Amino acid sequence: MNFPVEAMADLPEEHKASFLQQLEHMQVRDSLRLYNALVERCFKDCVSDFRSKNLAKDEEKCVQKCCEKFMNVSARTGMRFQEFFTEMEKQAAEAAKQASKKR
Amino acid sequence: MAMAATELEYRVELLNRMVASCHDKCSAKPYKEGVLSVGESSCVDRCAAKYWQVVAIVGQLLGSAK
After folding, report:
1. Which residues contact A46 (CB under 8 A, 6 or more apart)?
2. pLDDT digits (tens, 9 = 90+) for A24-42
3. pLDDT of A1
4. What ranges do the domains of chain B cover?
5. Which residues form the signal peptide (chain B) (predicted)?
6. Which residues of A touch B49 (CB under 8 A)?
7. Which residues of A touch B9 (CB under 8 A)?
8. CB-CB under 8 Å, B12 with A67
9. Nearest-CA distance from A68 to chain B in Å?
10. At A102, is the pLDDT very low, low, confident or very high (cuts 50, 70, 90)?
11. Close Cβ partners of B29 (under 8 Å, ≥ 6 residues apart)
């Protein structure tokens, strides 16, 4: 999970420390949320045989593939997301520059 | 400062929902393997692009409907 840290550069020193702390807290929270979401997703998709208390071999393999696949999708989506955001910010900066020129 | 944190939380939430939606729409189930196939990769790229367009449209509509 890559957080936009560039925005932080403009903040005054005393705010940077508290922002970093908040950021860390948010990252922990996001990791835990991801953990729960992924477990639920893979359980729903892979586990359906309740004749035994233990996971069957194929259920175990399915969970592993499920996690791997989700992480891959997450990574690729994150990449595109970052691209869009950078593009959007570039366009916004351009628009702002144009607007200030006209004044 | 609080605004920056809220904005950041919004971005994180947006990304999480984008990932979840694209995974639901693009991942072949039952899971054959962990690596993304070429089809799945293209699907994810297009899914992200469309999701972004929806974000823009909804943003516009919400902004104008006051």
Report:
1. A59, A62, A63, A66, B31
2. 888 899 889 999 999 999 9
3. 45
4. 37-66
5. none
6. 80, 84
7. 26
8. no
9. 5
10. confident
11. A45
